[in-house]
Amino acid sequence: MFICFKPKFVVLAEDCSEASYKKLVIALAKENNIPVWKIDKGEILGDWIGISKYLNKAKKVKSRKCSSLAVIDFAIDIGEGEKKMIEDKVKAL
Predict the structure, then answer these.
(1) Nearest by Cα to 45 from 11, 83, 79
(2) Which of 14, 51, 89, 92 has its CA 20 to 30 A from that of 36?
């Protein structure tokens, strides 16, 4: 059985080197009425999703880039204030 969830929004890194990939992500999001939140660097996105390597919470050992992600739902441990801030940002897109 195939279950499909519609993302709340998509985050796209502007520094993605593949122009055709960026166009595809934007076109698919537009076709499905999904807001696209653009950020400057893929390294920031990599940090957000936890793929960068850290020695401890304060010392990053290696940055890893991520070009895009689709947010289906918020994490359980996210606070209501954080959720509201993100939702307000997405509404403004």
Answers:
(1) 11
(2) 51
